[in-house]
Design goal:
alpha/beta; 7-stranded mixed sheet; globular
């Protein structure tokens, strides 16, 4: 399996993945600030952008994505790192932390329902199932238009930033239809890890938008993970790192600075 990654800056490693359908470019507003203090590693999970997209749906799951993160760190000879991501990326990092607690020096989760491991709502299930059908039958431009109309995460960003329409077309055009469809299937079959979150003893930062549907699940995570800190960005939706980049950067860097002092 070929996994795309890129590195920026130097220092202790900070490894981030974006949400479902996203790619490393979606961190463009955060790279400069993060890379000034850390060895920033951005990667695309299998099924996304420049990583491989197997045709077999059985080759996709949150556990496999967590294994891909493990293998990426092994490839880079990184024993411990700060791990995190947005939405799907946060769900992957949380499961990695549960699987390999000694390798996660800190956990940074942004706007992620999958990290909380709660069952998807009926409306979410319907939208995701429709997305698979549209992706495979009509292609990625049609999928982008459907997402902007029916996905509350995408529609919420457009409400705050109407100019982001072209951003979403570019995001979906970067995807392989089969990779995106299979990633959605893995999301629909997500393992429910809510009761396991109490096992996490890793320093944890949670960031959520005040207008994001995942705010509730993030609040559940805060209650489940001992010592977890929740920062609510405003006004912000599901794409908190892009809606409020300066506030997002500041919250992450301040949190990691405190972890740095403890780690040393």
């Amino acid at each position: 399996m070929k996994i795309y990654y890129e590195e920026h800056g130097a220092g202790f490693p900070l490894v981030l993945a974006y949400g479902i359908g996203g790619n490393t470019q979606m961190w463009d507003v955060n790279v400069e600030a993060l890379a000034a203090r850390y060895r920033l590693i951005l990667w695309d999970p299998r099924g996304h952008a420049r990583s491989e997209s197997p045709a077999d749906p059985a080759k996709y799951s949150f556990t496999r994505w967590a294994f891909d993160l493990r293998d990426l760190l092994d490839h880079l000879r990184i024993r411990r790192a700060y791990v995190g991501g947005l939405s799907l990326g946060g769900g992957i990092a949380t499961r990695f932390t549960l699987l390999y607690p000694k390798r996660a020096a800190a956990l940074v989760v942004t706007n992620s329902s999958s990290a909380a491991g709660l069952p998807l709502s009926p409306d979410n299930l319907v939208v995701r199932a429709q997305s698979i059908k549209i992706t495979l039958e009509q292609g990625m431009d049609a999928m982008a238009e459907f997402a902007m109309r029916a996905n509350p995460n995408v529609a919420g960003r457009l409400a705050l930033h109407p100019e982001a329409k072209e951003e979403f077309y570019a995001e979906y055009r970067a995807l392989s239809p089969i990779g995106y469809a299979n990633s959605l299937r893995a999301l629909l079959a997500m393992d429910l890890i809510t009761d396991r979150l109490r096992q996490i003893r890793t320093p944890t930062l949670l960031l959520a938008g005040d207008q994001d549907p995942s705010l509730g699940p993030m609040q559940v995570m805060q209650k489940k993970i001992r010592g977890a800190r929740l920062v609510v960005l405003s006004p912000a939706g599901h794409f908190g790192n892009r809606d409020q980049p300066e506030a997002w950067n500041r919250a992450v860097l301040e949190f990691l600075a405190r972890v740095d002092a403890t780690r040393r």
